[in-house]
Design brief:
Chain lengths: 193, 309
């Protein structure tokens, strides 16, 4: 009887300890993953000038691309300086939006279409914007793990006892254009090949 | 319709269930065989001593393949390290998925084989190795490759190499135990008249022991395969949880399973590692052989993935 009671208390104690550790370590990992976004943006900011100089010869008629590349780099650099998570995340998506412009330029210019250097540029741009996207995703996933555990039974007791507050993660406005579906979005997209 | 998280949780639950069933089965098998052995030999610790010995022998036999899993497998499959320039997509996709899953970047290797396939091994995430064939890297798009590499990353995250090694130790132990017991009862030992009467209960134990000794190595292997198939489903849903794009993995699975080229470097010892079973192509006894497969049928995996779309 007594042994049984002790066993139950020990098991509950171990469970509370492991749940507490989950909250603490996930919080630390969220913090680290936010730093990882900054790390990847730093890499982007360093990468862009290198890429620019390597394709300059091939894309010299496409001034617009270089302008938008420079603009993206500036946005990234300034966001890195502020250290604001949200600004950093926004700056990262700027680069991703350039890639379609480059493909258009490449398609319309048969001279550079077959060029390996330009293909490499697009690969690298896709990769670096993927890296930032995945770094953001880790923040989102960890935050979701944390908040789900914090809200669900029975781990919500542990969260309540030790006062773990909800993690914000990446702040996305709950309303606005990205959450609405316009009637034009519902039309079948027309593709001209 | 299930969302990805429900799918992952459901797969985890089923996987735990199969593993628990396996543990209970191994426990029963060792209990009955050791009881029978101790009654047969006429002294109590005889059976338990056997269990200990079988566990040690099986453990020693499997420990090497677990601890050195990363280097042994690579030696068998003849792989070379991946290069960022030559295998740009493979290298960067693995890098990105390591970021996404919060794991260290695994070591990457390429097997010189035109048949598309991939596998992961290594005893923990810090010693993880992901291996892809040249055919896979040539035939898949970047999105499809992401699905496959994320599948391998979830194997790494779920410690599947560790689980499979532990299961292999247990299966080996049961097989050894059964084999030894059958040998003793066959050769009879020196059972003399002065041995104490074991009674009806003893006779039942001996019969049960013989039945378990004959059947359980086979049954244990079947459960081992069932565990392996469960872990594949779990890795599939884990892959979608990382990439959020079931369509990539679906079309990759289709491409891999449709490919007519056989994988030359795969054999029975390494088959269970690959993303799609490299040996299970065609055959007349497909339905029955489902029980003996390390992987669930690709059709079922695609159906499961489509519910997550």
């Amino acid at each position: 009887m007594l042994i049984g009671l002790i066993l139950v208390v020990v098991i509950i104690g171990l469970w509370v300890a492991s749940t507490y550790n989950f909250f603490v370590s996930t919080k630390a990992r969220i913090k680290a993953s936010v730093q990882e976004i900054g790390n990847q943006l730093k890499r982007q900011a360093d990468l862009i000038p290198n890429l620019e100089s390597s394709v300059k010869g091939y894309l010299k008629h496409e001034k617009g691309i270089f302008e938008s590349l420079t603009e993206a780099r500036k946005a990234i650099a300034s966001a890195l300086k502020t250290g604001n998570v949200q600004k950093m995340a926004d700056a990262g998506s700027k680069l991703a939006s350039i890639i379609p412009n480059i493909s258009v330029a490449v398609e319309s210019n048969p001279e550079i279409k077959g060029s390996e250097v330009v293909a490499k540029l697009m690969d690298e741009l896709r990769d670096t914007s993927d890296k930032v996207m995945y770094a953001r995703r880790l923040v989102i996933d960890l935050t979701a793990d944390f908040n789900v555990k914090r809200a669900t039974f029975p781990s919500n007791f542990v969260a309540g006892i030790f006062g773990f507050s909800e993690q914000a993660g990446l702040i996305t406005p709950e309303s606005g254009a990205h959450t609405e579906v316009k009637s034009s979005d519902l039309e079948t997209p027309k593709v001209n090949l | 319709m299930k969302n990805i998280y429900e799918a992952v949780d459901a797969n985890k639950r089923k996987s735990v269930l199969v593993v628990a069933f396996f543990v209970v089965f191994v426990f029963c098998a060792t209990y009955f065989i050791s009881q029978a052995a101790s009654i047969y030999m006429g002294y109590e610790p005889g059976g338990l001593g056997f269990v200990g010995l079988a566990l040690i022998v099986s453990g020693v036999m499997s420990f090497g393949s677990y601890y050195f899993s990363d280097s042994i497998i690579l030696g068998i499959s003849g792989a070379r390290p991946a290069d960022r320039k030559r295998e740009f997509d493979f290298y960067t996709v693995a890098e990105n998925l390591a970021i996404a899953s919060g794991l260290p970047k695994p070591k990457l290797y390429v097997i010189n084989d035109d048949s598309p396939n991939a596998f992961a091994t290594g005893r923990d995430p810090y010693h993880a190795v992901i291996c892809a064939t040249r055919g896979l890297l040539q035939k898949l798009s970047r999105t499809e490759l992401e699905g496959v590499i994320a599948h391998e990353m979830s194997h790494v995250r779920n410690y599947d190499t560790r689980l499979q090694s532990l299961v292999a130790v247990m299966v080996g132990m049961v097989a050894l135990l059964g084999d030894w017991f059958l040998r003793i009862s066959w050769w009879g030992g020196d059972r003399s008249d002065d041995q104490k009467d074991t009674g009806a209960l003893g006779a039942i134990f001996i019969i049960l022991g013989i039945v378990f000794a004959i059947a359980s190595p086979f049954i244990a292997q079947l459960i081992q395969l069932a565990i392996s198939r469960r872990r594949e489903f779990l890795a599939d849903s884990g892959s979608v949880a990382i990439t959020k794009q079931p369509s990539g993995l679906i079309s990759a699975l289709k491409k891999i399973s449709m490919d007519p080229l056989p994988l030359h470097t795969a054999n029975k010892a390494t088959a269970h590692l690959y993303v799609v079973n490299p040996l299970g192509r065609g055959g007349m006894v497909k339905r029955f052989s489902g029980l003996f497969n390390t992987h669930p049928p690709v059709r079922e995996r695609i159906e499961a993935l489509q519910t997550m779309l």
